[in-house]
Each structure stands twice: as C-alpha cells, then as structure tokens.
Amino acid sequence: MLVVNCMDITECSNELYEEVRHMVSEERRVKAERFHNLDDSKRCICADLLLRYGLYQKIGQVGDIDITYNEFGKPFIKNMKDFKYNITHSGKWVAIVYGNTDAGIDIERIQEGREEIADFCFSEEEKLFIYNKADKNEKIKQFTKLWTMKESYIKFLGTGFSTNLDSFSINALEGVITSNDGEVRKDIKVRSLQFDTDYYLSMCSMEDEFCIQSIKLDEIIKLLNMK
Hints:
By secondary structure, the chain is α+β, with helices and mostly antiparallel strands. 36% of the residues lie in helices and 27% in strands. Helix 2 runs antiparallel to helix 3, helix 3 (38-59) crosses helix 7 and helix 5 runs antiparallel to helix 6. The radius of gyration is 18 Å and the shape is globular. The relative contact order is 0.18.
C-alpha cells in the first residue's frame, strides 16, 4: 500500500522554521537558503522532514539519508530498494508518497490563468474533457486535475519533462494512460482527488491501495527530538 503524507506549511511559523531547519541535512539547509521567498524555504525544509517521518514510519528509525538522483533528477535513497518516494508541493501544501514500488505525485492549487497550456500539451481527448464544461470555474478545475494527473505520470516514470506532455493521454475519469501510438498502460493507474477544497492531488503507481494522512509539524519535531 502507498502512503501519502501531507503537511500544511502555514503551521511552520518563522520561529519554528528557525528550529526545524537545523533538523535536516546541511545540503538541504543550503538549498533552502538559496530561495529568496521564505515560503519556498519552508517548503524545502518541510519536504525533507516529511521524508524523514516517512522513513520512520516505514523502517522504525531515522539516520543519515544518502540521496542520489537519476539522469533526469528524480531522487532516491541509496541502498534502500524497498523505499521508493516522490515529493510535491504547491501553495501551503507539501506532500510525499512512499511505498515499496515507484510512484509519482503532484499537487496544484486550483487557479485560473493556465488553461491555455492545454492547447499546446494536451491530447484532443483531454482538451474535450476541459472545454466541454460550460462553467468557467469547472474548466479551471478540470484543467488542474488533468495537469496533476499528467505530472504524476512523468514523475512516476522519473523522466521529467523529457517526456512530452502531449506524447500520451490520460482518461481523467478512469485514470488510464494511453500513448500516442495507442498502447494502453495496463500496469499502472492515475488517481486524482480534490484536496482541501482548492487543490488537486494526483498519484500514479502500480499499487491499488493508498492512504492519505495529514501530518502535523509538531509530530515530526517530537519524533526527531527523540532521536
């Protein structure tokens, strides 16, 4: 079963941020400090904290995490074959999915101004799904849903945007992926749900079951202070 842990970064006050940024690796702290926007720094640190918390849930301990990357930048932990993970963030939310098998996850806030992207990188079937909605707000919501579904798939693949978004189509109702040459990916599926009213959260994996948990920052602080 896949586990999805989500954290609301609005719980991370500026004072708490000064505390928790010392609980992550030096590499992660340096990365966080490069951001000019404090919320970006908080998302960076909270993503690492969620990874550490997920490791504890999975194997019962947290030590040094040796992260490496594939040629497209997808991270994985060295010498840990049974812990696959993927991280996403948008607005106030940071989320991680983890399990024994590869997975991709994406979260996006529902907001207008991006729907025209569909004309360039969505399939005809996907565009119909969006533009057949009479209500403008519904079009924005369905665009966001499809966008997160497509992103979760390329994050599952671990290829990033080297896989063109218009090279495949996703049935937004069934989560089935079809490549442009007609091949149907029967081994994987994309699941999507409206999350916290104004976000969409999508996951792509071979697993049939998943659970979503909202993790409080103070839970993680207490755990890491015990280590």
